[in-house]
Amino acid sequence: MTTVYDGALPILAVDMHGESPERITELLADGFLPPDGDLLTAVNTFLFQTGGRTVLVDAGAGTSVGPGTGHLLENLRAAGVRPEQVDDILITHLHPDHAFGLVTADGEAAFPSATVHLSRLDAQHWLNDAAAANAEGVQAQIHRWAVQALTPYRAGGRFSTFAYGEQPVRGVTAVDLHGHTPGHSGYLVSGEGEQLLLWGDTMHSHTVQLRAPHVAMDIDSDRPGARAARMRVLEEIRTRGWVVGGAHLPFPGIGRIRFRDGEARWVPAPYRPLEPA
């Protein structure tokens, strides 16, 4: 498994809900993070081989959210993989920092040979004209970005949707993590005697949300649903011992969660730079 770094995004403590500001400040301080100003969070994507195919999970932000992100293609090439060599792209959800890297600045497919796979529920929401017409502010912009990101793939017949529990590609099962968006998905990758769960926005700040998993984010479409998904998947990880890869966990975003004395702690896996063949 190779993490391909797209960059970093700011998040704000004021966008966290479900605990008092004082408790949020306390949790951040325990992680040596300031309560005021931007809290940077990584934007990770994940690259691996399965069934003879090259698979990418999420596509980064492209040109959507500023110069701190959009570095996926250059880092992919640094890993020895050309964009045209990617066969399948599994999108966790259609927020721009996960999907707008599907297209170049001029709207062309950044991955000219790839098929994009997405939860049917997320597609039904973000590609729905009526929902887009009723959306306001940032939600309306997300609808527009989603349509733009998928346009060349839909036009080329390289867009596919799935239901939870199905395998969009061989050896990878779609996991129900809805709440953050209506079709937010995780991907459970099986191999070498272990299972690795790759998620998108199940956590934005592990410093806060591992110790207080009931804390939701302003951007969550359904805050109670996002909380429930996080609590549910943490219990699955505790009982099944899954390795975890998270889009917004500290780069490279792969490791384990240790559960002890009623609390959860992030334990990053050792890593090394990939040496291209």
TrEMBL record:
Keywords: Hydrolase, Metal-binding, Zinc. It comes from the Bacteria. It holds the Pfam family Lactamase_B. InterPro entries: MBL_superfamily_lactonases, Metallo-B-lactamas, RibonucZ/Hydroxyglut_hydro. Residues 42-248 form the Metallo-beta-lactamase domain. GO terms for molecular function: hydrolase activity; metal ion binding. Gene3D superfamilies: Ribonuclease Z/Hydroxyacylglutathione hydrolase-like. SMART domains: Lactamase_B (SM00849). Belongs to the metallo-beta-lactamase superfamily. This is MBL fold metallo-hydrolase.
